[in-house]
Design a protein that fits this description.
alpha/beta, 13 strands, single chain, 302 residues, two-stranded antiparallel ribbon
Amino acid sequence: MRFSLWTNLSQPWADAVEVVRHAEATGWDGVYVADHFMADAGGPFPADQPMFEATAALSALAALTERVRLAALVFGITYRHPAVLAKWAATTDHISDGRLLLGVGAGWQENEHEQYGIRLGPPGERVTRFEEALRILRGLLDEATTTVEGEHYLVRDAIAFPKPVQERLPILVGAKGPRMLGVAARHADEWNMWSLPPELAAKRAELDRACEANDRDPATIATSTQALVVVLDSNDEADTWLEMLKARPCVAGTPDRIAESVAAWQEAGVDELIVPDFTLGTGAQRAEALDKLIEQVAPHFR
């Protein structure tokens, strides 16, 4: 199992660089960022808090690191035209010497679309648009020319050179609903969702059935997941933390207790656990929490 860091782009840039460099130096496998322009209006954070833009951040991190895989969770296709995103992806794959994972999703956050005048559309429309976008992305990343004449996009004999460093730049799809799982079954190299182990196991089984319906070998799609993580010196306050953070999947406790959840995720088929740094503190406290996870938890699953 791989262990990766999700760093918060609402923190000062110097702090984000510091934690990413620490993760790379201490054996973490990957680094992720979110692709949003502001916090969700209905979420726990103020919508006007500072937030850096994801494509610029990832390209910068590609130049500042040497080993870790880099990705977004996930680029919203509603505000990332697939042809332009493909050009960015190939460029950043070269900057990173072949370390990019292209994470994409159908888009969901209403306030950023409303404020920036970007059409979100109803769920069904988003899924249709997203699948067209995936066809464009795969074509421009792999083929000499690409033509997709859809309801939402029109590209004809489109070229995109240079191609990525990787022979096949992998595409991660974030998905939970039945139609989106079908899209993942047809197009994804990796599938992702927020989860605790029981929910992950159930959704992975749905994805496997979708793969079978689409003549796709389920084993060709890797699985990643993320949950909030709170590293504690004892388990006495774990339930309190879980109650406070119940809006999102969360695990809390000592490294031994966290390892129990990781074992259940692995049993459910998870290939990569992504740990957000949102609940790990800052500075030395965050570095210590990351070190405990990579030194005391990760070795049991690698």
